Structures are given as structure tokens and as C-alpha cells.
């Protein structure tokens, strides 16, 4: 949207009328147009609009509707609000902005009305501000003790010797029992009230009918918010509701009950008079979670990352209601479920969902298991296009890793990803399980074995913990398990008992990586000897506990193509992070759509390639080719050549091997092999692994994943026919804000505390036990 201009159609002088569906229609008035972009400042824009209509800048407010929503007016009062409005209209050429004039009410302490505001002046009220909050009970849910911000006019503030530069910035936090003494006299609270003006007539009086008790309660709640008072239920059931004003002694009261033989609710009695002093309510007493959800639902569609703190600010600004963080958070959860569907229903739809995956994508495997109580246990999904692409075009190399889900019922996603011929992430299969256990990993590998149906030895890059060491060896016999260097590093740092500085740990980790990447035994030995010079304990751990034959290139029997960590599939995990808050069936469908898009886009990209290898492999081959000039090849009688340069290496052309091991490790000819290939008049392309050719790459992405049309409708229509009932797992997300970042190996490298007295590690000077 940056740089794009939209035309702001500014309208004023008309009136809003409420349609039958609750939407607002603006009629009458004048209109002017101005082009704006996201660089314009709010004050400049407001000033220009004020000049257009010859209005005062201080008595004017600007509002707009979100695209597709004509029920809720959004206020523009800052640069951030203006930028949001432009962003929301990013796909539109115009934006309608409604200019509303506010009436500034001056405070006259000598003639103050007695009904809605007290005759007490501010100076009289100030000594009472420090009084404690009352312990009055609250019958509504999600409430907190009120902290009410009232705008005080400048002339009154000056009477109390407060110097205020701007009336709109003069706020006083007044306890609920004191707030009636201060009238609403500035334009800010008028703006708040106007945000709910559309609800002022939701209750009209005796005889008004409603289709249900629920509709009556919602109308009553909106009416109270619009008129800014709190109420409590005296009777509240499915056929009658009696409500009175919360203020003690106030006669305002409504009684409604069901009309006989119908479901209609009718107001039978109503006393519309308030005698309570200052019935202003700015805390969230009347704002239930469902009300908050109904207010923010439309905006949540447009802005899925709508944060609870922004919900609090917007509702305060629009309706004058002060929510707390958890009211906003819970309201957002309800709105999300209304938009996305029920988490509980999604689990029960799993049997039919798996059937549809396999029906519409033949050759795919989608299966699930439940526990004895029918609660969800595990789900495995592998699409035919992924399985075919891996077997036909990818190296026999799989990366196993997991990511924690932050959905309502938590869980864990296990994934097997591969590397395509251009070293891009290629998702093969994934599973959603209830907990991180050895049994769940073994089940995942069993399903993967069944889906792949291959006897070809595979190399798995994975952690050696979580039962994977035993499961891989047992399920994929003859395959190779390459330990993930990231997890191995964490183990080393965790198991070291000596105290080492951050710098020393960093050096040991660098040497460990050097030992892993070293293609020759000599290089491996040099690196571990370097670790030995730092710590004999670390050296012994590496040589005796870490099993170098599972992670060091010099002694690893399989082919891992220099891929040392299992978190290769970060792209795939980012998709999961984007969808983890969705119900389980929708989460899987989002992942399916992402894989489908990936296959389509990479297939289209490869159609433009004109060389024999994929771009990244062409680049690597070219780098090796540049080193050939300094090499000398001694031509023997057979197919074994000696190549001299900085070192003397032996190249076996029959076995595609070089003593430097670069050819074997990477799958591409090293510089020594390229020198020999040139001498015998052959092309280096003839000696590259077939997995790096464009033909293999195109095979990887040759199959397509088919969408599942009308997913929700079909599942809802057929859910009653499901033979198996699946309920949500018992574990639910704990309260509090979840973490947003994946924990990586850098966590083990955090700097330790160092004492400034004894220079020891693991404590500071306040806890130092050394005698000075």
C-alpha cells in the first residue's frame, strides 16, 4: 500500500439512518474530495478538511466504516488511526469519511443540573479522590474495579491550579464512587458516546417485542452502553427477565417475559427514569465477552492480528467502555471461533476430513487415532504429490523436527521435510500429536514408512533423543541416522560440569562444527584436538558419548550432503506458525494450500531454467571450476589420477571419488575431479548427482495437490454420519500470553553471570561466598 493514493470523500451535514439489518445509511449533507496516502499526517489532514467545510479544527471528529461493514463507525484521532484507515482501504480507490461536529459543553458550576451530574465543584471533589474503591458486587462477568478517565474542561482545571496545555490531554483517574461528581464537559467523552449512538433506541418501551431472550439481553446491553449506566438482573431465565439500575435507590427498571404460545419476548413494564447521580459507566461491567466478540468480529476479518491491547483502546475510544486485557482477549477468542468454526466440531470432523483427503488426492495417506475415551491422540497426513516428488526427484535425505502448537488444545506438529535439487524445502509428511513422546515419534515413523513404500536406504537428520535413535534403526532398517548438530551442541553445553565462560563455549562450538564439516579424518582430528586443549572433559564427551560416526563427515557412512541440522524446514514451520490458532481441520487445510502453492510456483519457475543443473548447484559447480587453474593433473594408465595443488589428492573416476572427499560429500565434482574431467575431455555435468539436474527437479514438482472444495459445508452436512466420535484432547492452553519464538540452539549460549569480586561464574557479588 506504501505510495498508493486513495481519494477520501469527506461528507458532512447529513444524518445516519439505521436500516433493518442494523447497517447505517448516511443521507444528505455536502461532500468534498481529497487525495491522500500513508505519508500524510493526521493534523495536516484534519486542518485541510476543516478548511474545506469552514469548521473549527477543535470541534470536529472524523469517522469511517471498515470495507464491507456499515454497522460500526471507526474514529480517526491520530496518525496511527489514519494509516490504519488507508491500509484497510488498500484495495479500494476511494474511502468515505464522515465529518461530525461536536458540541463543546462549557461547565457552569453555578447552574449545574442535579440529575446526571452533581453540584459539587471539582475543587470540592479533589480531596475525595484518594478514597478507596467501593466493594460493590458486580453481577456481570469479566469485570474489574473501575478506573474512570474523565475529561475536565480547561477553566475548571485552572481553578485547581493545574496548568494544562491541551484540554484533550487533561485526564483525572477518579474512583467509581467519586466519578458522579464530575460531569462530562469536553468533546472527547462526547466522541465516546457517539460511538454507541446507534444503540440509543434499541429499547423503546412497554410493548416492544424481541424474537428471543438472547436478542432482548443483547439489546438491553447495547442500550445501557449507549446511555452509559450499569444494571443488574433480578430475574433472568429463558422466559422472563427483570432488570434494575445498579445504582442504589434509582427507580429505572424493566420487566420482560415470553408471550404465551410463542418464543417472543415482550417488555411488560418499564420505568425509564434515572434519579441516580452521574450514571456514567466507563468500565467493562456491561461488556460481556460475547458483546466484545460481536463488536470486533468484522474488524478481525480484515485484521486477523488484531491485538487485545488494540481492542481495549478501540472500544474505549468508540464506546467509552474501559475493558481489561483479559476481557478483550476472551472476546477475541469467541470472535475467532465464530469466524473460524468450533475447535470441538473440528476434532469430530476428522474421520470425514481424512476420507476426503484420500478421496480427492489418490495415493495420499491421512489417518488418525483416538484414546480409549475417544479423545484425539494423533493425526498423520502425507499427500501423494509430496510422496511422489520425494521418491522421484529428491535425495534420499529426510529432516525430522517438531514445533509446539499454540492452539486452544496445544499439541505438537511432527514433520518430515526433504531438500529438493535446488536445496529448497520440500514438505513430505507431517503429524499432529497430543504430546511429545517417544511413542508418538515411533508412530509417526511407522506411518511414514507405510506411505513411502520404499526399500531404498534413507538418511535421517534428526535429534538422537526422543526415542528417535531406536525408532529409526528399528523401523527403517539399513538407513542412516545423522545426528542434528544443533541438538548435539545443546547436549554438549548442558552436560559439561566445569564452569566455562561464554567465549570459551563459543570456541568449543566452533571447533565442534569444524569437526563435523571436515571431509577428512585429519581435519576432524585437528578440530577435536583443539577442543581437547580447551577442555579434556569436552573432548572425552565428544569421543566417547557423541558417537562421531553419526555426525562427522569424515566417518559418517551415509550421504547427508553437508546438511548438518534438522531444522532445515523452517519455511514449513513458518506456515504452521501462521495457522496454529485455527481448528485442526482448518490448520491442515491451510498447510495443504501452502504446499499446493509451493508446487505450482516452483514448477513455473523451473520452466524458465535453461541449463542442466538447478541454479544453486550451477553456482556451486562454477565456484569449484574457478579453482582448477592452479591444479596439475598427472595422467596415469588407468582411471585413477593424481592431482597436485596445495595438497596432493587422488581421484578415482570409476567410483566418482576424490581423496579430499568433497565429491562424495556434496554430490558435485570437486575442483580436483573437474581438473581430471577436463583432461579426459568430458563434461563436468556428466559426473554430477542426478538429483541436481533440472529433470529431477521438475519430477519433484510434477504432481499436484487437489483442493478440498466446500470443506466446511460438506463436513457439517456429513458429520452426523461419522461412525467414529473424536473429542478434543484433555490438555488445554494455560492462561497467559504464549511465547512467540521458537527456541533454538542459541539459548544454550547465553552469557553466564560472573562475580565482580572473585571473577567466578554462576553467581554475582551479592551471593559470593568467597572470603576476601
Question: Describe it for me?
Answer:
35% of the residues are buried. By secondary structure, the protein is of the alpha+beta class. The radius of gyration is 35 Å and the shape is elongated. Residues 103-193 and 740-751 have low confidence and may be disordered. The protein contains 25 helices and 25 strands. Helix 12 (384-393) runs antiparallel to helix 24 and helix 19 runs antiparallel to helix 20 (584-606). Among the domains are: 6-101, Ubiquitin-like (UB roll); 122-286, no CATH class; 486-550; 613-692, no CATH class. The strands form six sheets. A seven-stranded mixed beta sheet has the order 15-16-19-18-17-20-21, with helices on both faces. It has a five-stranded mixed beta sheet with strand order 4-1-7-5-6. The protein has a five-stranded antiparallel beta sheet with strand order 10-14-13-12-11.
Features:
7-stranded mixed β-sheet; 18% strand; alpha+beta; 772 residues; Ubiquitin-like (UB roll)
